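@channel sequence for tomorrow's demo:
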Amino acid sequence: MNMQNDLLTASKIRELANGFQVSRIILTAVELGIFSLLDKHLVSSAEVAKQIGADARATDRLLNALVSLGLLNKVHEKFYNTDAASSYLVKNKPEFMGGLFHTNELWKSWGTLTNAVKVGTSVYESEKSEGDWTESFIAAMHYRAAKEAKILAMMLNLNSAKKMLDIGGGSGAFSMGMIENNPALKAIVFDLPDVTPLTKKYVESFSHKENISYVEGNYLTDEFGDGYDLVLLSAIVHINSYEQNKILISKCYNSLNIGGQIVIKDWVMSDARIEPFGGALFALNMLVGTECGDTYTEKEMREWLSNAGITKVEKKNTSYGWSLIIGTKN
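structure tokens (generated this afternoon):
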């Protein structure tokens, strides 16, 4: 998506500005558990309202809007899920988009964008407990990572890798994906103390769970150890400032064996910072949600690696928007 290539009529601008309405309808339905309630059932709006503890008229109007969006069907004043809603919006289904609970949190933080632009950093204070936020965030990241991990593993040469460090590894999805590609690989998932219990839950059912171990700490202040053949930074550098990343990459370099690789998986911006489109939006997501996060250009990432002592760097594009910057220690 690139608005620069579109003819922006007044009607199109109005459509873009009003896009929040559709987003809010979907997020409210997910938040209220409507799709899970309607799974394999034909239910009136009055009964839905009763079960979710909401106003009957207001619930009816919400369900009607979901019909207009193609997420519900309506027959004889009763509602049921479309195939898409049944597949992706019902809890405990394999393809459930649980990450939308995190998107609901982003709705709140993005509402502070005007003030964040004025002061230059996040002004958002979450209403939810830290534990709830962390769990919904990890769930959102896992939903994406589980699909991306297999692709990433195929894009890297893991044949000779024996030990990897997964910094800020969250659910451990990428470690699991790498190990599936190379069962001889041992992975250390490095993350904060409140994340590690969640990681262990995701890894528990993994067929090679004995290949994964855990280290708790802060990647900006704590040491990583050494002897790694691969250090993965998936969706990490955008959380930090330029200078913090400079320090982080140097720490990663010091932990690598000769011939080992640092893999940065993130938005890689053009020098003008307007492409890719998703990265331009994500820079604002970091503005409203972090103290100093941002998206970075390929030039900036190469500067971090060069500063650490790496001269062999390559970029690989992916099919899901983000790119890989791979630095090899000589």
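heads up for whoever presents: The CA atoms of residues 315 and 325 lie 5 Å apart.
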